[in-house]
Design goal:
This protein has helices at 10-36, 40-48, 51-82, 88-94, 103-114, 119-128, 143-168, 172-179, 184-195, 197-213, 216-220, 226-236, 240-268, 287-319, 326-359, 363-372, 380-406, 418-441, 446-454, 459-470, 472-488, 491-496, 504-513, 517-547, and strands at 83-84, 283-284, 556-557. By secondary structure, the protein is mostly helical. The chain folds into two domains: 11-42 and 320-513, MetI-like (MetI-like fold), CATH 1.10.3720.10; 50-272 and 279-319 and 532-560, Orthogonal Bundle (MetI-like fold).
Length: 560
C-alpha cells in the first residue's frame, strides 16, 4: 500500500522544481537574447528618439511615487501605532483599503471628476461665470496625475510593512531616549524611525516595482514610460526588436530594485525586539493634534478609497449597464477562468519548489526557489514579450516543418493560447505564492518531518498527510492573492490574450480609452470588490499580531 503513495525520487522532484524555475526564467532570458540580437541600429534609433524621454519620465515617476508613499505610509503607520486619537481603530484597517484598487481604476474615476467636463470644473465655471480660458486648473492627465494615482493605491505597501515593524519594536530604546530628555517627536525620529528603516525601504521598493509594472494608468494619462513604449513598439509599430530592447531596459531597472528590496529584507532581520519586550507607550494627543492626525490619516483613505468608490458607483448607475447581461457575464467568466487556473497552477508549482527545498535543502534547490521568485520584479509587459518571442518562433518553425513535410498548416498552436497567458501569470505572481507558502512552512518545526519519517511516512504522504493540512490557511491565502492579482493584471493580458477573449480589466481599459467612463465603471467596481478580499486578510493577520502583545501601558499626555 505504501508503494502507491511514493512520490517521484529526489532527482525527479528536483527536475520538476528546476522545470518551474526554468519557465520563470525563460521570459527574462528570451528578452535579453531578442534585445541583444536585434541589432544596434534599432537601439541607436531608440537612443536618439524615445529612450531618453522614456527613461526621464520613468525616473521622475519613480521619485514622485517613492517620496509620496514613504511620507504617507510611514507617517500614518506611526500615528496609528504610537498615538491615540479619535477614529484610530477604524483608520488602522481603513488605511490599507486603497490597496484593493488598481491604479488605472482610480485614474478612470478621477478623470471624470477632475477633467474639464467633470463635476469639479463644471461647478467652478457655474459658480464664477468663468469661461474655459479664464482660469487655470491642474491637469489630471499628466505625469503628476499618474504619480498621485499610483501613490494613493501603493502607499499601503509602506504602511503595512512599517506598522508591522513598529508593532514588533520593543519600547526599551524609545523609553531610554525619553529619559535622556528627548520628546516624543525627537525619540521617534532618532530611535523608532531608524529601527524601522529596512521595513520602510522595503515597502517603498515594492511600490516602485509596481510603478514600473503599471501600464493602465500611464497609458490612459498619455504619460510615456518604458511600459507604454513596449506596448506601442509591439502593437503600433510592429517592431519586435525595439519592444525587446525597451523591455530589456525595463527589466534591468526592475531587477536592480528587486535586489535592493531583497537586501532591505535581509537587513530587517537584524533588528529584533531584544530579550525584553515592552509595548510602545501610546501618546494621548491633544485636541488640535488629534485633528491633525485624523486629517493626515483620513485624507489618503478619503482620496484613495471612499471618493473613488462613490464616483464609480455614480458613473456605473448613470450608465445603466447591466452586470448580469450576457456580455458582462462573458467577461466575468473569462476573468474567473483565467484567475482560477492561474492561481491553482501557480500555488501547485510553489508547493513543488518549496517542498523540494524543504526536503533537500541544497544550494541547487534554494537557487531554484530564488530564480522562480524573480518574476515579481518583472513587469507584465516584459514577461509577455519574453514568452511570445520564443514561442512564436517555435510555432512558425513547426508550421513550416509540417507544411513542407506533410502539407499541414498547424497555425499558431501555443502563441495566443490561454495556456501561454496562464504561464505569464504564473511567472509574474509566483513570488506571492512562494511567500505565502514559505510563511506557513516556517511554522512547521523540522522535527515534525523527522518524526513523520521515523513513523514510516513517505515524502508524498508526509506532504499530503502532515504539511498540507497544517498549511491550508497559508495555501488558501496564496490562492486568493494570486487570484486577485490575475484579475487586476492588464499589460500581459492585453498583449497575450487569445482573440476575442476579453476580461474585466481589458474591457475597463478599452471603454476608458474610448472615453466611455460610465461603462468602464462597472467592470472597474467588480475588480475593486474582488481586490478587497486579500486586503481584509492582511488587516486581519496584522490585527492578530497586535493582539498577541496585549499589554498597553497607561498613555502619556501630549506631544509637546
Amino acid at each position: 500500500m505504501a508503494q502507491s503513495f511514493r512520490i517521484p525520487s529526489p532527482l525527479r522532484l528536483g527536475t520538476l522544481a528546476w522545470f518551474v524555475a526554468g519557465v520563470c526564467l525563460l521570459p527574462m532570458a528570451a528578452v535579453a537574447v531578442a534585445a541583444l540580437t536585434g541589432g544596434w541600429e534599432t537601439f541607436g534609433r531608440l537612443l536618439e528618439s524615445v529612450l531618453p524621454r522614456y527613461a526621464g519620465t520613468t525616473a521622475i515617476l519613480l521619485v514622485l511615487v517613492g517620496f509620496g508613499t514613504c511620507v504617507i505610509g510611514t507617517g500614518s503607520a506611526w500615528l496609528v501605532t504610537a498615538t491615540r486619537f479619535p477614529g484610530r481603530k477604524v483608520l488602522e484597517v481603513a488605511l490599507a483599503l486603497p490597496l484593493a484598487f488598481p491604479a488605472y481604476v482610480l485614474a478612470y474615476a478621477y478623470t471624470d471628476f477632475l477633467d474639464h467636463p467633470g463635476w469639479v470644473q463644471t461647478s467652478l465655471r457655474d459658480l464664477t461665470g468663468w469661461g474655459p480660458r479664464d482660469y487655470w486648473f491642474p491637469e489630471i492627465r499628466s505625469l503628476g496625475g499618474a504619480a498621485m494615482m499610483l501613490t494613493l493605491v501603493l502607499y499601503p505597501y509602506v504602511y503595512l510593512l512599517t506598522r508591522a515593524a513598529f508593532l514588533q519594536q520593543s519600547a526599551t530604546a524609545y523609553i531610554a531616549a525619553r529619559t535622556l530628555g528627548h520628546g516624543p517627536w525627537s525619540a521617534f525620529a532618532r530611535v523608532s524611525l531608524p529601527i524601522a528603516r529596512p521595513a520602510i525601504a522595503g515597502g517603498v521598493l515594492l511600490a516602485l516595482m509596481e510603478t514600473l509594472a503599471d501600464f493602465g494608468t500611464v497609458s490612459y494619462f498619455g504619460v510615456q514610460t518604458f511600459a507604454t513604449g513596449i506596448y506601442q513598439a509591439w502593437y503600433s509599430f510592429f517592431d519586435r526588436g525595439a519592444a525587446a530592447q525597451l523591455a530589456l531596459c525595463l527589466l534591468i531597472v526592475a531587477l536592480v530594485i528587486a535586489a535592493l528590496e531583497r537586501q532591505q529584507r535581509r537587513d530587517q532581520r537584524q533588528h529584533g525586539a531584544g530579550r525584553r519586550f515592552e509595548s510602545m507607550q501610546a501618546v494621548e494627543l491633544s485636541a488640535w493634534q488629534s485633528f491633525g492626525a485624523l486629517a493626515f490619516c483620513g485624507l489618503p483613505v478619503l482620496l484613495g478609497f471612499i471618493l473613488p468608490v462613490g464616483l464609480l458607483l455614480g458613473l456605473g448607475w448613470d450608465s445603466f449597464d447591466n452586470l448580469l447581461s450576457d456580455r458582462y457575464l462573458r467577461f466575468l467568466r473569462n476573468s474567473l477562468i483565467l484567475a482560477s487556473i492561474a492561481a491553482a497552477l501557480t500555488v501547485a508549482a510553489a508547493v513543488i519548489l518549496g517542498f523540494n527545498a524543504r526536503l533537500h535543502p541544497t544550494r541547487a534547490a534554494k537557487a531554484a526557489v530564488r530564480i522562480a521568485g524573480l518574476g515579481y520584479a518583472v513587469p507584465g509587459g516584459v514577461i509577455a514579450v519574453g514568452l511570445i518571442v520564443p514561442f512564436a518562433a517555435f510555432d512558425n518553425a513547426l508550421d513550416a516543418f509540417m507544411e513542407a513535410r506533410f502539407g499541414l498548416d498547424t497555425g499558431l498552436l501555443i502563441t495566443g493560447s490561454i495556456w501561454l497567458l496562464v504561464a505569464a501569470y504564473g511567472v509574474r505572481f509566483m513570488a506571492a505564492a512562494l511567500s505565502a507558502y514559505d510563511a506557513g512552512l516556517s511554522t512547521i518545526n523540522p522535527n515534525v518531518d523527522a518524526v513523520a519519517r521515523t513513523l514510516g511516512r513517505t515524502p508524498r504522504s508526509m506532504l499530503s498527510g502532515v504539511h498540507l493540512p497544517i498549511l491550508r490557511p497559508s495555501l488558501l491565502t496564496a490562492l486568493l492573492i494570486v487570484f486577485v492579482d490575475v484579475m487586476k493584471e492588464l499589460p500581459a493580458t492585453l498583449i497575450m490574450r487569445p482573440f476575442n477573449f476579453d476580461t474585466l480589466a481589458v474591457q475597463a481599459h478599452r471603454l476608458a480609452a474610448d472615453e466611455r467612463l460610465g461603462e468602464a465603471a462597472v467592470p472597474s467596481l467588480v475588480i475593486a470588490a474582488v481586490g478587497l478580499l486579500p486586503v481584509v486578510i492582511l488587516c486581519y493577520g496584522l490585527g492578530n499580531k497586535r493582539t498577541t502583545r496585549r499589554f498597553v501601558p497607561k498613555p502619556t499626555k501630549g506631544l509637546g
